[in-house]
Amino acid sequence: RNDFSSQLHKFMAHLTDAQHRTVGHTVLYIPDEGSIMASPRAHNDKELVQRLEVVMIHWTRQIKEVLAGQESLESKDGCGPLEEIEFWRAKCEDLSGLTRQLDQPGVQRVK
Questions:
Q1: Are the C-beta atoms of residues 91 and 18 closer than 8 Å to each other?
Q2: How far apart are CA 12 and CA 41, in angstroms?
Q3: pLDDT tens digits, one per residue of 97-107
Q4: What secondary structure, in 3-state letters, does the chain show?
């Protein structure tokens, strides 16, 4: 059961990422294990902790990719000031969205 759940969360995280990346947004997949995570003994459930670690590793990769995205602008030749302004506006919007997501209760329960 644990392996299946871990693989399902991993798949859902990749699917969520791919869906929103097409429009330039980074969206964190939040697993729906609220009733289990709300339990005061949730940190003792090794299988739950392992499943949530998989999700957090994916979040870490997503955030690193967003932060490393500046290199893609630097590699473009002939990029003018308007393109650079648009790039940084989009980057700011994406990072602000990540900040809002990290403050959501679902994410806070996983942490």
A1: no
A2: 25
A3: 999 999 998 88
A4: CHHHHHHHHHHHHHHHHHHHHCCCCCCCCCCCCHHHHCCCCHHHCHHHHHHHHHHHHHHHHHHHHHHHCHHHHHCCCCCCHHHHHHHHHHHHHHHHHHHHHHCCHHHHHHC
Dist CA 28 CA 98 (whole Å): 8
Sequence-separated (6 or more) residues with CB below 8 Å from residue 73: 79, 84, 87
User: pLDDT tens across 39-97, in order?
Assistant: 677 778 888 888 888 889 999 999 999 888 766 666 666 678 888 888 889 999 999 99
Q: For residue 35, give both structure tokens.
A: 């009733």
- pTM of the predicted model, to two decimals? 0.78
